[in-house]
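lol ok so funny story. i was supposed to be doing the assay writeup but got distracted and ended up predicting the structure for this chain instead. priorities right. anyway since i did it might as well share w the group, maybe its usefull for someone
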Amino acid sequence: MGKGPAERIDQKTLESFSQYTFPQILFKQAERLGSRVAIREKAYGIWETYTWEDYLNYVRWVALGLLSIGLKRGEHIGIITDNHPEWLFSELGAQAVGAITMNLYTSSVPKELAYGLQRIKAVYAIAQDQEQVDKLLETREELPHIRKVIYIDPTGMRTYRDNPWLMSFAELLELGKELERQQPNRFEEELWEGEPGDLALMLMTSGTTGLPKIAMLSYQNIIDMARKWLETAPIGIGDNWISITPPAWIVDQMWGMGVALCGGMVMNFPEMPETIAEDMREIGPTIMITSSRFWEDLASKIRVKINDAGFIKRGLFYLCQKIGEGVVDRESRKKPIPGWLKFLNWVASWLIYRPLLDRVGCLQLRVAITGGHPISPDVIRFFRANGLNLKQAYGLTEAGGVFQVQPDGEVKPETVGKPLPRIEVRVAEDQEVLVKSPSVFMGYYEDPEETAATLSDGWLHTGDAGYFDEDGHLVIIGRKKDIMRTKEGEAFSPDFIETRLKFSPYIKEAVIFGEGMPYITAMINIDMGTVGD
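and the output, tada:
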């Protein structure tokens, strides 16, 4: 419902970014945007801001600090952080001096972290806090290649100070400042050695054998995808993006490192998961991409609250919901909306939609996008009927991020829309979705066989089954290998059914099975929180 972008980045500048790395783009943006806000983080109820000049300085100090402790160009660094500015400073700082980064999930158990760090032979690890440090200490014997672990949050770390394997982020910054005093040009010398075709980062992605694969992405891959979004989405300089998906997921890499950096957006980091709605109300994000689970949970909470409301409020909400559904239904079928329905929808907007969206921090959103796991079309309809421009998108780590989205004016809740510019998508004879684009990844780390099986003649084999509808929209059925058949030979996608069941506020999880059986069976996990309310 937010207004359009006030200041869009010009096309010439955007095209020029194709010749740079992420840290080089930051350098250019700091020159252009200087004292304008680049990052906000909420801590203890107060928003702390970093300008573009501050942003560059922190990246400079991290880069020089890493050089001071022995980092060499081409070496690998593991980053285990939550959504905080230090993630950006660490990743860009390492990349500025030619290192390759891999983010890992803070929810990982010690063995999972050790596995990822072993696979890439990381020489340094940057950890969020004591919890992550303890995981690394527990598996230290499996990490002989790690020279030092740098921890960001010093809380609880006082008794660890005598351990030479550990170092604080503050100490790293001081080393960087000292090297800057000694060699004032060192950062720029290292910075401009990078090339856009260089390997920038690696991300772990699920493997067909059960073991994760490590996807390699160049600067060019991410920047190409960022350019596509900046050319098509309603994004402007100074617009607010809220970082709530893990840095180890392609979405925050594509946006935090790609779109936000190239587009001059403000990266906002909420205080904690429990304060996201309140923090969103304060900053007013203008565009948002997050997981389907976020929207499913939010829809469930809203519906439970409405059902618990008084008779008049509940009745008014459902009346306005019906009005909104009428508009959404006509839009999706490309039918004209009568003037009387437009008027009723406008009234409903001020009575219900706007107050509701404001309450959950979504009032200023021009567009909200759901990605990752498939989402029920009913969730899309629910939010769109309440005035939120929620769209379903489709992407993969291997594709460089989200490459397919529902265009404005053509939103069909059952589909994932159409490709972004300069992306080819086709469906093979076996229904597998194939993608070709400059943003497609470089391959899997030290895994030429999987790379050859996934990339063929420039086409990325997604492993997903789908089809195009009569309007050219892509419909994703599910993972090709997960398609099941009943005893009679009728094909069905468990995922497809599960996402629709989970629209109910009382169903937390659903598992569908029926391979070779005469019927399909569902196992339902009741959401006791909403049932109890």
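The longest helix spans residues 311-332. The longest strand covers residues 459-468.
back to the writeup now i swear
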